[in-house]
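Example (one chain per record):
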Amino acid sequence: MAAGKSTRAPTSSEVRVSKEFEIARLLVVAAARRDECDRGLGFAWSSRIYPFFHEYRSTEAFAEEFIVSREQVKAIIEHIDKQWLAKESFTFYELEQKFGDRWSGNGKIDRGKLIDVCRYAFLSRRFDQSLWQALTVEGSGPVESQGLADEFDPIDDLRVEF
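Predicted structure:
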């Protein structure tokens, strides 16, 4: 690691985004609200999570501007997939222990963004209901994570905050 480089993930206030990124983000969110593109794709852009399941050349052009990077999303999804294929159950708290940090330090992502990555996978129809049920069982994670497998709601799921 280069001297002076931090290993913690940037927060939303620390990520500089271009006007072009925000325009692209608004266009994707608007298309998702009109049901003209995949809900998961709209959610990822809305939440500033790299849309790992929806990679396009235009997405790659903005890779540095997403709060949760391609590498972070990939690592989380690969871990979930490995556990799922092995039929090993796990809780959201266990997922958070491995990848998350309530305060977004030490190179990990904050709890809210970890929930968003899981929500993105759910809306992108990855994994089966048994996995999502296990992750949302009462007591398996914080109250904020209990809705990650709820029915899609374009108003709640496709936020446009600056």
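Caption: Residues 40 and 125 are 8 Å apart (CA to CA).
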